[in-house]
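G.,

No rush on this.
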Amino acid sequence: MTTVADVVVDGLARAGTPRLFTAARDNALLEAAGRRALAIVHTRTETAACVMGAVTGRLADAPGAVVIAGDPAAARDGVTSAWLARCPVVVVSTGVAVPESLHTVTKAVLSIGRESAGHWIAHACQLAMKEPRGPVHLQIPDEIGGAAALPVATTCRPAPLPSPEPEALDAAARLIAAATRPLLVVGLQCRSEDDAAWLRAFAEALPAPALVTPNAKGALPDPHPLVIGTLGTSSREADLVAEADLIVAIGLDPLEAPRSGWPATTPILHLAAASPETPPTASVVGEIGLVLEELAPRLRERRAADWDVARLHALKQALGSAPSGDEPEVSAYRVVELARAVAPAGTVAVFDLDRALSAAMRAWQAVAPGECVASVSRGIGFALPAAMAAQLARPDRPTIGFTTRRLLAAAADELDTVAALGLPIIMVVLDDGMPSVLTRARSAGLAAIDADGATALEATLGRLVGRRQGAVVETQV
């Protein structure tokens, strides 16, 4: 007999979902996942399950999946994090009604019936992946999870975006041709390798400098001379923005735009997979790679941009340099810089949201999409579950998480999850004056190392990365 739970799990699998995350131990959906051979990862908390589902959705380019068996309100922090980071994830709950507080941080709250299971799981997966991406909550009444259901052939992936409008492309080309100092601002919708290839060709053809948002790091290689810095990590970026006579926002989500906004007199061209919330000077909507491909022949006769190369080099050096005057920021920057120096190419870095870590993120040089995962939610202990999800999604690559004692303590129960899964993640923990977490790490069966000072940290990380050994490393540099 095919049950409602079977139909839901089958829909997730056909959408490309690689695994389910849950803090539950007994549930009809989990039983159905076992029958479908869909991997199940058990976490200690609903927040961690949601963070892991969201990061999985982002890195797998498919909807992540979370199963909540108790009160859905327990998942609010994790769902909010997925909402703010625009991560595609389907959160499935059973029994308890979804509280109103979750309606504001999900794209939709849907309820399944016996006859409609196939329709609603397909709709949930498509909606989660549709730009702007985000969490969708799917509620299954307790009494129907194990009830018989009729399998229905449904498409669980969203339809391809329509081709960009020729008139919009022509208008965009005219704006770019008229600009002498265009500035590219690259956002989180630039996720794929295809997008990355066209972005680099586009930037070099103009040529135009670029600022990349934290969740788009790697879409253009950070070491590239045209990548001036990471948006929002230095006050010096305002100098670059002020000199531009056109801002070309590529795949930029409204949540990534500067809080202070752009200069009022500077025209803005929006190239993205979804229409902008605030009307720019001009916009083209479509697949990012295709939009840039279609723009290329329209810009063949355009004269080269007239940026001062020496000035751009100086700004890149300034935006990428270590902070000065603030001891926690200087220390955090040096820690990340040392880790980047010993980590092999392709290493995935995960950052908790902290003032010092946000400033230090620019020390992590990413060269491909998905090599940097940054939290957008304060205080939830994001880095540890996110690092686990990244390691599961990309098992052939090392994963290093950067956090503080306080933020790791917020997710300390998940240290047991790391040990249970045997994941070789390295958590680098900054001393923020809170109690040490090393004893808790040892009690979970993990290697716990105190590596104070640059020399000790460099040697420790080099050894751990080389052996693919998981550990919690506390440091103060």
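When you get to it, here's the other one too:
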Amino acid sequence: MTASGPGLERQGVIVSKWAEFTVDASKAGGTAPLHITALDVDSKPVEVTITDNKNGTYSCRYLPTRSVKYTITITYGGIGIANSPYEVTNVLY
């Protein structure tokens, strides 16, 4: 199980522009609940939109509203995926 895309990179996310990434569960075997949380530096939740692509992958996005650190945590079937949580630290204007 992997997650990748500009919305999970340490730098390059831009304030007021959608930060997008993809979760690939196609090799995880079976189906399980995907849960994603995004928190800003003050631990305030940021809404994450998840779209099931019906092929084992999920398109995800969130909208950073401030130039602060964001922490994205991804679990599948209640278990954290590799490299999660992701810390997005350089959010640009």
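The mean pLDDT is 94. The two ends are 32 Å apart (CA to CA).

Enjoy the weekend,
O.
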